[in-house]
Specification:
Length: 78
């Protein structure tokens, strides 16, 4: 399991992130520190407190992790 941190600021960004996550064959989980949800579920993503950074956890190879992180660059928390 590998992790990185993102920020989601709008409904459109949730839609874009879920679309990215559903395009992958591996598990994508997102957590706000209190709740853990399926990153491929639009409805579950709205259960998170997006006012703070979110932790994305991937169950994949190092290569898949690097590619997903690169594809999700627009969401990375700075």
């Amino acid at each position: 399991m590998m992790e990185f941190t993102i920020r989601i600021k709008s409904v459109q960004e949730v839609l874009a992130f879920v679309s990215l996550a559903t395009s992958r064959f591996f598990s994508v989980s997102v957590s706000d520190g209190r709740h853990h949800v399926n990153g491929k579920s639009f409805l579950e993503m709205f259960c998170l407190n997006a006012r703070h950074p979110l932790t994305v956890t991937l169950d994949c190879s190092e290569e898949e992790f690097q590619q997903f992180r690169q594809d999700a660059a627009r969401f990375l928390a700075t």
